[in-house]
Amino acid sequence: MSTSCRRMFLGQRFLRENSATSIPTFPKSFASFPVFANTEHRRRQKETRLRSLHSSFRHQSFHVSSAARTRTQDKTPSTQCRLPSDFLSTIQSRHPELKISTNPYDLDSHGHGESYHPSSPPDAVIYPSSVEQIRDIFSLCCREVLDDDCDSAVVEVVSVIPYGAGTSVEGHLNMLLPTEDEILKVPSSMFTGHDGSDTYRTIKVRRRGGISIDMSNFQQIGDVGAGDLFVKVGAGVTRNTLNEALRHTGLQFMVDPGADASIGGMVACGASGTAAVKYGTMRENVLALTAVLPPTKILSSDSDACHDVAKPEIVHCGTTALKSSAGYNLTALLTGSEGTLGIVTECTVKLHPIHNNVIAAVCAFDDLHTAAEAVTMIRMMGIPVSRIELLDEVSVQAFNKSLQSTEKSEAINQKQTEAKLHLQPMELKPTLFMEFSAHSEKAVLEDLTAAQSICVADFNATNFVSASDDETRQALWAARHRLYYSSIALRSGDGEREGATPRSTLLTDACVPLSHFADILSATARDVKELGVIGPCFGHAGDGNFHCIMPMVESDTEDYRKRVFQVNENLIQRVISVGGTCTGEHGVGYGKKRYLERMYGSGGVQLMTSVKKALDPWNVMNPGKIVDV
Amino acid sequence: MSRNQPIGVPSHQSIAYHLSSQQYNKTMKILVPIKRVIDYAIKIRVDPTKGPHAVQQANVKMSMNPFCEIAVEEAIRLKEAKKSKDDEVVAVSIGPKQCSETIRTALAMGADRGIHIETKGDVRGDYIDLQPWGIANLLKGVVEKEDKVDLVLLGKQSIDSDCGQTGPLLAGLLNAPQATFAAKVTREDDGSFVVDRETDAGTETIKLKPSNAPAVITCDLRLNTPRYPTMPNIMKAKKKPVQVISLEDMVKELGLNLDDVLKPRNQVVEVYEPPPRKEGEMVESVDVLIGKLKGKGLVG
After folding, report:
1. Interface test with chain B among A72, A248, A386, by most B beta carbons within 10 Å
2. Where would one find the signal peptide in this protein (chain A) (predicted)?
C-alpha cells in the first residue's frame, strides 16, 4: 500500500473504534481533517481508484469528510442509516414542514465541533422550530418493536445530540453509541400501553443510531423592557447576534468565549470568556431556562406513534428575579450538563450596562511566574478589573510572526477596523493585557493607577502602556484578539505540506485557585518547552484559568503527538493535585471523563450517574459524555 | 486663506470679511437626517393580499437605518476631532411618533439635539407615502430654518426603499456641493470637507469647499463602525432637547404645499417575495454534471 493509502486505512480503522467503550487518545490519522491545499485535491483524485479496492473497510464518516473536500470524487456510497426504518417517515408525516436532512455533508458537519476530535456523524439531522416538535421526536426515541426472534420485548433507542453553533472543543457533538445490546428488567408501568399490573418485564435494549437536533430555528430574542437587566432568547441565537440586537439598549450580554457560540450551547457547556473575571461565567449569568427532558416511557408497539404519554416533560427552571431560594437549583443542574440531561430551548440571560469609561493597558514581565504573581496580587488587593489576560512569550512570538507574513495576516485580519490599526511587533516577554471600566473617569483612572503601581513597582513590569480611545485599545489588545489563529499559524503550511487548522489543534483547559496559578502555569510552560512541542500558553489570569494551544500537522510523528497529549495529561494531573479542575470552561465531553473520579471520588461520580439515570433512564441524550451509564 | 481675499481689500478689513462670511465658521453645525426602518436583522414578511402595503410593519422591530447610524457616528467623530465646545450635531427625523426613540438613539450616540417632524400614524415611510422628493424638500426647509449649517450628513440609502436619492436631491435643491458614498471624511481648518469615495474604478478624493450652502455628504458602509450607546449616555439623552412639530405645521411654516410633500412621485405597483430557491439536484459524478450542464446549454 502507498503511504497515503495506509493513512486512509488507519484513519478508517481509528474511526470505527470510536465508540463509547474506547477513548481515542491520539488521532492516528488526520485524514478526516479539512484540507485547504490544492495538492491534496489532486492527490485524492489518484487515490479514488485505490480506495475502491478497500471497499470492505468503508466507513461513512471518513468518506463523508473527504467527499466534502474534493467535489470531483465519485459520490459517496449510501451511508448506512442506523435508525429504525420508519423513524424519520413517522416524524415527517406528523410534521410535513419539518426539515429533516440525511445529506452526507450535513451529517458530517453535525458530527464534530472545532477541535481535534474527529467527526462521528449522526444518522440524520432534524431542524425543529418548536418545543412540540422536539417532544414528538423524543416520543419516538424509545419504542417497543415486535421481534419474533426474541423472547423478551425489544426496545429500540435512538440517541439525540442537540446542536447549536458547532463550536464545541471537547468532542460533545460526537455520536458515540454503545455497541452492545443490553438486557434489563423494567417495571411494566414504563410502557405506555401497560395493563396496570404491578409486574416487571425483561427487555432487550437495542441502540438504533442517533440524530442531531439542530437548534438554529430557535432565534427568538425577547424585548428588553425599561429597567430590565435580562432578556429571553431562543437556544439557537448566537452571542454576537444577541449583542447586535441589543446594540441600542445600552446593555450587553457579557459572557464572551472565543467562538460565536449559541446561547443554548453556552448553557450546555457552562461557557465563559475574558469578561468572566468581572461578570462571571454562564453559571452566574443564566437566570432561567426552558428545557425538554428526554423520554422516560417506552412507547408500546400497540400505542399510537407520538403518543401523548410518551411525550416527555417540558421544564421551566429559574426566575427572572436576581435571587431565589425556591427549591432545587435546576438551572444550575442543567447549566454545564453538556446535552446529557435534556435540550435547552430557551434561556433568560443576565445583561449588564456598558460603561462610559474604559481603559486598556498592556505591560511586559521578565518571566511568566512573576507575571502570574502580579495578577494574583491585583486580585488580592481587590482592584476591579474587567479583563485581565496573560500571554507567554510563545504567544507573543506567534503574534509577531502573524504581522510578518502578509497572506496569513490577511486571513487573520478579519475585521476591517483592524486593518486601519498600525500594529507593531511586541517585545518577546510574557505580557499582561488588562481592561478597566467604571462609571466615572476618576474611578477608572484610580483602578488603572493602582494596578499599574503593583505591576511596575512590586513586580518590575516594563513598558506599561494604557489608552482609552477605541482604536488604540484595539491595537493594544491585538495580540490577545488574534491569539488563537496566530497560534495555529505558527505551524502553517508551506504550499507543499498542509498547515495546522482548528481541527488539528489540541486546546487544553484547566483552572486552579489563584494561590497556585503562578506555579501551575509556569510548570506547564516549562513542560511544553522540555517536551519540545509548540504550545503557546495563555490564561484568563484573573480566574486562574489557562489554556495551551498545541497545533499539529499531518506530517507530525507519532512521538510528537504523544508528547502533545502528554503535556495535557501532566497539566491536568498537576491541576487536580492542587484542588483545581480538569476543565475550566470547555466541558468534559468524552476525553476528560476519566478525571472526574480523581476530582470527586467514586461517591461524586456515582451521584452524577444517579442523576443521569433518573432524568434519562434510556441514555438517549448525548451518550458517552460526562459519565458512563 | 489669502486666496479667498478679494483683490484690493485692505488687510485689516479682510479679517472682518472672513468672520462675517459663511466660509469660515468658528462653530460647526452638522445636520444628520435619520430614518426609522425595519431592523436589518429581521426577516421581512410580505402579505400579498395587501397590494403595495404588502410589507408587514405591525409588531415588527424597527431601528435606525444602518447607513443613517454611520452618518450619526461620523458627525460625532467630526465634532470630537474638532474639540470645540459649541459645535452642534442635530438629528432630524420625519415619521410617526415612535421616531422619537430613533432620535433618542442618535442623542445617546452623542448628537446634541433633535428635530422630529411627526407624521400621522397611517403615513408609511417606506417609499409608499413619504418619498425622497418630499423628504428632500422638507430637509431643505429645515436647513434654511436652522441657518449656518456647515454639513448635512446622510446615509447613502435606506434599507427599505434603497432609493439613494434623498442626499443628491437635497444637494440639488440647496445648490450645495455634494459627495456621495463617502468612505472617509475629514474637515480642514478652512471649513472645507475632504471626502474619499469608493468607485468601481478606484478611490476618488473630492474637496467640498465652503460655500453659502452646507456641504452634503452621503455615507457608505466602510466609513466607520457606529458606537453602541452606553447606558449613562442613554440616560443623558433623555434630557437633551427634541423639538417636535407636526408635518402639517412644518409644511405651513416652510411655505410648502402638504400635497406636494406627501404626493408620491413614484407609485408602487406590486410587492412580492422573491420566488423560493429551487432545491438543487444531486448528481452521481462529474461526467453526469457536465452532461447536464451541456444539456441546459450552459457550457459549450
Report:
1. A248
2. none
Instruction: Kindly identify which residue of chain B lies nearest to residue A74, measuring between CA atoms.
Output: B285
- Contact state of B105 with A72 under an 8 Å Cβ cutoff: no
Mutate to test the interface with A, among B63, B77, B230 (most CBs of A within 10 A): B230
Give how far A108 is from chain B: nearest CA, Å. Answer: 17
Which residue in A474, A480, A470 sits closest to A418, CA to CA? Answer: A474
Q: Tell me the pairing of strands A545-551 and A537-540.
A: antiparallel
Mutation to test the A interface, candidates B231, B287, B293, most A Cβ within 10 Å: B231
Nearest to B105 among A241, A248, A416 (CB): A248
Measured from the Cβ of residue A38, the count of other Cβ atoms closer than 10 Å reads: 9
DSSP B207: E
B5 part of a folded domain: no
We report the CATH number of the domain holding residue B73 as 3.40.50.620
Local structure of residue B279 (DSSP, 8 states)? P
C-alpha angle with apex A624: A619 to A628, nearest 5 degrees? 80
The CA-CA-CA angle for residues A211, A217, A223, to 5°, reads 140
Please report whether residue B6 resides in a domain. Answer: no
The answer to whether the beta carbons of residues A126 and A137 sit under 8 Å apart is yes
In the structure grid, which three cell numbers stand for residue A286, read together? 443564566
Q: How far apart are CA A558 and CA A491, in angstroms?
A: 17
Beta-strand ranges (E) seen in B55-192 are: 62-64, 88-95, 113-118, 151-155, 178-187
- Give the distance from residue A416's alpha carbon to the nearest chain B alpha carbon, in angstroms: 8
Mean pLDDT, range B48-58, rounded to an integer: 85
pLDDT of residue A196: 77
Domain carrying residue B195: 13-295
**pTM to 2 decimal places:** 0.85
**pLDDT tens digits for A86-131?**
999 999 999 999 999 998 889 999 999 998 888 999 999 999 999 9
Stretch B97-121: mean pLDDT, rounded?
Answer: 96
Interchain CB contact of B243 with A (< 8 Å): no
Give the C-alpha separation, B245 to B117, whole Å: 5
Instruction: Give ipTM to 2 decimals.
Output: 0.84
Exposed, middle or buried by CB within 10 Å (0-12, 13-18, 19+), for A575?
buried
Q: Please give, one letter per residue, the 3-state secondary structure of A272-324.
A: CCCCHHHHCCHHHHEEEEEEECCCCCEECCCCCCCCHHHCCCEEEEECCCCCC
Asked if the structure places residue B140 within a domain, the reply is yes
Name which of A74, A251, A356 is nearest B232 (Cβ-Cβ). Answer: A356
Backbone angles phi, psi at B10, to 5 degrees: -60, 145
**Main-chain dihedrals φ then ψ at residue B182, nearest 5 degrees:** -65, 135
Q: How far apart are the first and last CA of chain A?
A: 41
Which of A10-14, A428-432, A436-440 shows the lowest per-residue confidence on average (mean pLDDT)?
A10-14
Measured over the CA atoms of residue A143, residue A144, residue A147 and residue A150, the dihedral's sign is positive
CB pair distance less than 8 Å for A248 and B285: no
Whether the CB of A78 is below 8 Å from some CB of chain B: the reply is no
The answer as to whether B2 is a domain residue is no
C-beta atoms of B232 and A416 within 8 A? no
Contact A354 B286 (CB under 8 A): no
Contacts of A238 in chain B (CB under 8 A): none
Distance from CA of B110 to the nearest CA of A (A): 12
**Tally of domains in chain B:** 1
Q: What percent of chain A has pLDDT over 70?
A: 84
